[in-house]
Design goal:
Strand content of chain B: 15-25%
Helix content of chain B: 25-40%
Helix content of chain A: 25-40%
Distance between the termini of chain B: 32 Å
Shape of chain B: globular
Distance between the termini of chain A: 25 Å
CATH architecture of chain B: 3-Layer(aba) Sandwich
Number of domains of chain B: 1
Largest sheet of chain B: 8 strands, mixed
Number of helices of chain B: 10
Shape of chain A: globular
Number of strands of chain A: 12
Oligomer: heterodimer
Order of helices and strands of chain B: EEEHEEHEHHHEHEHEEHHEEH
Strand order of the largest sheet of chain B: 6-7-8-3-9-10-12-11
Radius of gyration of chain B: 20 Å
Largest sheet of chain A: 8 strands, mixed
Number of strands of chain B: 12
Order of helices and strands of chain A: EEEHEEHEHHHHEHEHEEHHHEE
Radius of gyration of chain A: 21 Å
Largest interface: A-B, 46 and 38 residues
Chain lengths: ~350, ~325
């Protein structure tokens, strides 16, 4: 592990409630996840720590393969059994350590206290079961209710997500992409989760539909006072929905802070590079400034700063040793030795 | 100005069990030489079909395509073969558009081989192309699966460039790429345009990308053009209600700007046997009875066309 001996500074993501000042709602500490593939060890998540309060939204931003989805899957405990292992770290919800829970207990939490929305609504639904049935199934699993009650509740959820209850008996293929995503959201929220993990919930959708779905997620989050982790690569979506942002690169959080910290004062060269490489809708710049090179191979990560091979500011200091998180201003953390 | 490509009333209908699907329905536009025409629209609006019509991957149902002043709508045989050297396409998905069993070198060489170039010339040109699109020549014997998405898309661009084309249809060339790589590819396309004066038709659903790269923009909705204008003008002053809603839906990275969002109700209606009136009518906040008549693309402001009968009232 590249950062074995580093004392990780705790980035405080989320504003603490007054009565709850010691224990945040969700706390992930020093999470390390590895995959094995063809005898190689893939270092997917390398010491990620984060915190989140109820009613707040954390955006996990990063490129393909940065480890965003793996972080979410480890919180929910749905990593593939044989090819992955959580090497280190803890996940607490309300002070309860999820990683040490037996599978039976975890099943009670999954879909109930924590729910997840996946990127692709086309594959997240069972094609041969009517959508309403799929939702009521989840309700029956977690609550001791009759079939009739659960069906009523499923219809209620569908309507909340903007689908008329008459479509209860329709199959997924009878819905468009945006409508399917609404079904998926209705299902995720059916048991009133306290934490919702949304993995690229709008990436597969068109912009006008994306606007509808984001608006809906926002409304429901506020209605149920949910904590929300939004995984995305789109800074526009982050600006829209998030309170806190954590930028993930090669399995590490390289910068975290409030939305204002990240958008107004991006500090890490990678974050700055990301902002420079998106064409801005209101700017007339003729050329983009891409980040040179490619993300590192997660099987052979650089010894020092993972971004150093692509970083314009890199020196020997960056390449030689793991870089700790540094607090640049209250609540704004950055993993760079050249700030 | 110099028109390279002109399309007049182009139509493509597909026969489906449910009836005729109007994928492209009476589209007309011109593309100037050395410029980029962006085509935007949501999935299912017919933008990819339009692109495929331009390079003869689909046969049109009606209308005409002119290239360098010549009607090429029904080009066949040798004529088509020659045309395919001049008019090229870059596909969206670099993972499925390359032959997995061909090395990078032979993929790039293929169009030259088809054009029967002499071997030495071919080898020279291939090296030159790999250099142009920024692929290390040491990779020339690699297979597509050994490359990342960005490099694969560079191979796709190299293939398109091989016979020295004057017009390239780029069908979502950066949608499958990460932002940092996307910027590299966009810059490459721009550099090539500047150096070789290539004309692009750039199809995308990403509005910030289209604004960045295009000189002119066509907005499509259910097979029809609803608005076309120079790029800057369109973003500053959208006229058609659909364009307005589309632009307002883009999530901005400016965290202080609270955009006034026009929320559209519902989704794209079916393109099968559409009604004669405005296709945007079921979702339009301004719809009236007059919208049930067929709409015409009219020049509202200089060079700025929109097809909406209420456009003047709405924009007052």
């Amino acid at each position: 592990m590249s950062n074995n001996n580093v004392k990780t500074t705790e980035p405080v993501v989320g504003v603490n409630d007054k009565e709850n000042i010691n224990e945040p709602f969700l706390k992930v500490e020093d999470l390390v996840v590895e995959y094995t593939s063809y005898g190689e060890i893939i270092h997917a998540v390398n010491g990620v720590s984060l915190q989140l309060e109820r009613g707040k939204t954390l955006g996990l931003v990063g490129e393909t393969g940065a480890g965003k989805t793996t972080i979410a899957k480890s919180i929910l405990g749905i990593l593939p059994k044989f090819s992955s292992s959580i090497k280190r770290g803890q996940v607490f919800i309300d002070g309860q350590d999820l990683l040490s829970l037996p599978e039976k207990e975890m099943q009670k939490i999954r879909g109930n206290k924590i729910a997840m929305i996946f990127q692709d609504p086309m594959t997240a639904l069972n094609p041969i079961i009517p959508v309403g049935k799929q939702i009521s199934e989840a309700i029956q699993l977690h609550y001791n209710v009759s079939a009739k009650e659960s069906a009523e509740r499923a219809i209620e959820m569908l309507e909340m997500a903007g689908i008329t209850g008459e479509r209860y008996n329709d199959y997924p293929h009878q819905f468009s992409g945006g409508m399917k995503q609404r079904v998926v959201i209705a299902m995720a929220l059916a048991c009133r989760p306290e934490l919702l993990l949304a993995d690229e919930p709008t990436t597969a959708l068109d912009v006008t539909i994306q606007a509808q779905i984001l608006e809906m997620i926002k409304e429901l989050r506020d209605k149920f006072n949910m904590a929300l982790i939004l995984i995305t690569h789109d800074f526009g979506v982050v600006a829209e929905l998030c309170d806190e942002v954590a930028v993930v690169y090669a399995g590490e959080i390289i910068e975290s802070g409030t939305k204002e910290d990240i958008f107004i004062h991006p500090t890490h060269p990678y974050t700055i590079g990301l902002f420079d490489s998106i064409p801005h809708i209101d700017s007339d710049a003729d050329r983009l400034k891409p980040i040179a090179g490619l993300p590192p191979n997660p099987a052979v990560l650089p010894k020092g700063c993972h971004f150093s091979p692509r970083c314009p500011k890199a020196t020997d200091e960056c390449r030689d040793q793991p870089i700790p998180m540094v607090e640049t201003s209250p609540g704004h953390f950055c993993r760079c030795c050249h700030i | 100005m110099n028109t390279l490509v002109e399309v007049k009333d182009l139509k493509k209908y597909f026969n489906t069990p449910g009836g005729q699907l109007h994928a492209v329905d009476g589209v007309s536009f011109k593309i100037q030489k050395g410029k980029t025409m962006g085509v935007v629209g949501e999935s299912g609006c017919g933008k990819t079909t339009l692109g495929r019509l331009m390079v003869h991957l689909e046969e049109s149902t009606g209308g005409n395509i002119y290239f360098e002043g010549k009607d090429i709508t029904h080009a066949k045989g040798i004529e088509l073969k020659k045309l395919r050297q001049k008019v090229r396409i870059i596909f969206q998905d670099p993972f499925s558009s390359l032959n997995p069993r061909m090395t990078i070198r032979s993929s790039i060489q293929e169009p030259l081989r088809i054009a029967r170039n002499p071997v030495e010339e071919m080898v020279m040109r291939t090296n030159q192309l790999m250099d142009m699109v920024g692929i290390d020549t040491r990779l020339h014997l690699s297979f597509p699966h050994e490359l990342d998405g960005g490099r694969r898309q560079r191979v796709g661009i190299g293939r398109a460039l091989a016979p020295n084309p004057s017009f390239i249809v780029c069908d979502e060339p950066v949608s499958a790429l990460d932002v940092s790589i996307q910027a590299q590819v966009l810059n490459l396309l721009q550099d090539l345009q500047q150096e070789y004066g290539i004309t692009y038709m750039f199809i995308t659903h990403d509005l910030s990308v289209v604004r960045h790269i295009s000189d002119d923009i066509c907005v499509m909705y259910l097979g029809q053009l609803v608005e076309t204008s120079p790029s800057k003008e369109l973003f500053k002053n959208p006229l058609h209600p659909y364009t307005k809603a589309l632009l307002s839906a883009i999530p901005s990275t400016d965290i202080y700007k609270k955009p006034k969002r026009i929320m559209l109700k519902g989704e794209l209606s079916s393109p099968i046997n559409p009604k004669p009136g405005c296709r945007f009518l079921p979702r339009c906040p301004y719809a009236t009875d007059a919208c049930r008549e067929p709409q015409k693309l009219e020049e509202i402001l200089p060079n700025h066309f929109a097809s909406c009968c209420r456009v003047k009232e709405i924009n007052d």
